[in-house]
Amino acid sequence: MEIRWQKNGPVIGSPMQTVNSFSSDIQARQARWEERLVEDPAVFHEVQLDIQRHFNHGADCLAAALLARVTQRPEMETHVQRVRQNAVVPVQAPERRPLKLRLLSGLVVWLTVLYCPPRSKAAKGRDDQEQPAGLYPELAALGIRHGDSPALQALVARTMALCPSIAAARKELRRQGVKLDTKTVRRIAEQLGTEFLAWRRRELLAWRLGLVPAGDELAGCRVAVQIDGGRVRVRENKQRSTKRKKGQRRKFRTPWREPKALIIYVFDAQGKRDKQRLPLIDGTLLGPDHVAELVAWHLHRLGAAKAETVVFVSDGAPWIWDRLDWIIARAGLEASRTVRVLDWCHAVEHISRALTLLKLTVPARCMAFAQMRTLLKQSRYAEIVAELERLAGKRSKKNKVWTEIRYLRKHGEAGHLQYLTFKRRGLPFGSGAIESTIRRVINLRLKSNAIYWLAENAEAVFALRGALLSDRWESMLRAVQRSMSRDARLTWRWSAPAISPDAVLPSPPTSPELPIPKAVADIAA
Question: Taking the domains of the chain in order of start, what are their residue ranges?
Fold first, then answer.
């Protein structure tokens, strides 16, 4: 690998030369900084920022010098050969190509690196394949992708996921000395998000084959699983029957979509979330079957089968309850160690809604609601249903009050309303965790006025923000780095199995007895 400061510029010197040059420059600037502070002590804030920017630039220069020095050492060739041998996609003999590299503080250098084109093209017309990507073995060994250093990619993606908009993220990066345009900020963040989704898809496929061993992070713990959906607008371009004129804007629709979110966390003996243990936040826009498979996969890889108790807390959405049996069987959980709970607030809401539909007087409705709420705390749901049926009397079966009564009876008979028992066992019976997750992950970033997302971009930002807010950012970066160094393809969509209440329950994935082809086994890397 050859590195230059700029096109037709001088070759970067050694690390020691870079340090000496930087030290001389610092000594020259020190006098000017002292004079500014003597003239006006109030500019100390500006001087401090100037010092920070200068040191950041010096750090980039030193990083470039180290990169030039390390890549010339013979040991680097060993790492390059290992990357080529471990590549999932077969590649051809290397050729040299020019490439621009942007470092953490914005310094841009030009490289001449080895590039290995793909050996064959993927079959077209298949959902599970895409055009195979080539390989930059030297850059892959260093974790460099798309012309951006790993630290810069992580910084930009993290800032974009945290800020309310790309414009705000760009301004925040400028304050840190990283000057990028809006398109570059968007590109870097969405690329990292898509890489995370590609890694997740590969792990899911490997899990299906039984190639992912169960973890032990949740062994012996009391685990809560909560699932719910949010709302976000997506952008769908309209198909035009005539050719679009030059300068004419493309028309599009902005339908609402329901991103499905999940959170898995550990709770203590009082049913409160254990803040010493990291939660897991994930989700998808693909559909309910996909999020069910995500839940089962996460429970498997975290070792929920070894947990003391696994509690599923949810609202009354049928798309959640109809898939819990499948999730439990697929994740290998013991049914005797699982508990299903209807969220307390939703149960109370349906009681209130039923009383409102009965059109009682305000004092009578308030009195009945207080009594039924007390009965619900004592797990006496049958008395609540009987009283509502008495009040409904001979009203038509088409009246919506019967829908609320059937709702309470169904969940009560299934054992989802045993709140007194849940409290005594120290189990959570509120869905505040998933409601907070939807607000922090989706509503504060993806859902806003006049914001429309392409589905793939919303999925990428969803994944980044979930990993960031669950404090699993560093582990996600390491997993993506290992995956992308072996396979640079960015296919992230997958087809989940169709799940229905009458379907035969699956068995947990087990290691196959037959030999697995290397290309398939490498998915689990």
Answer: 1-126, 344-425
